[in-house]
What we know:
Layout: E1 4-11, H1 18-21, E2 27-33, E3 38-44, E4 47-54, H2 59-69, E5 74-79, E6 83-84, H3 88-98, E7 104-110, E8 124-125, E9 139-142, H4 143-149, H5 167-177, E10 182-191, H6 205-218, H7 223-233, H8 242-268
Parallel strand pairs: 1-2, 1-5, 2-4, 7-10
Antiparallel strand pairs: 3-4, 5-9, 6-10, 7-9, 8-10
Helix pairs in contact: 6-7, 6-8, 7-8
Amino acid sequence: MSRFEILCVTMHQKDFSKIEQMNIHSDVVFANQADTTRYDELDFDGHCARMITTDTRGVGVNRNLALTYAKGEICLFADDDITYNDDMEQRVLAEFDAHPDADIIIFHLDTDSERKQIKYSQSKKCGRFCRMPWGACRVAFRLSSVKKANLWFTTLFGGGCVFPSGEDSMWLADAKKKGLIFYVSKETIGKVSFEGSTWFTGYDEKFFYGKGAFYQAVHPKTKYLWMLYFAFRTISKSDISMKEKFVWMKNGIAGYHKTLSCYDYNENSM
């Protein structure tokens, strides 16, 4: 088992050129969705890169594939549009060494996107009621803790899935429910741009539809409070009226129930 490993989701890769593009200086697993199935391995600068290529689709499926092949004591989720700092691995490991009780640590990524991420002035433990506005590519974790908690990504939410986003938030919510200990870090480990996002097309009908499904899945008892909060929070970001936002979020709730019914039918008919 290596001390540190990156788990990167990507698509249509034919070689290991992402190692240089992302400035990777550690072991890495590439979960690569393409039109074939194969396994490739490359030794570079004393590290090992593995690429598992499948013809599956869906970011949750791909992250689960990377988790299945993970070997590092400490792992870091990644997207393939990140460029890491030269000393990224040292920064991540130093934070886990400084906080031995941490199961998950959230790191900062610089971005020029309008959807800026929260940067923390100091590393600290997260309380029970802390918000979790973090994408998966900021998340590092102890592999043993995740394996013991049996944590996997939903295959209904995220790019290439039935509902367009939310898989990372659901994974984090599940980790919190199972008692894993979170820290946020003051350390910046790289930079990323969200401008070329394949799923985020703005605060449109599709976005609110997905939010309704997400709130039903994660907050079924308080979903309407969350919907009200989100409708107000996006007033300046969307031309859609409050009423229309609620209509689309309620449609998302109905769509989520319908999707689950389809899965129940398929499972019971097998």
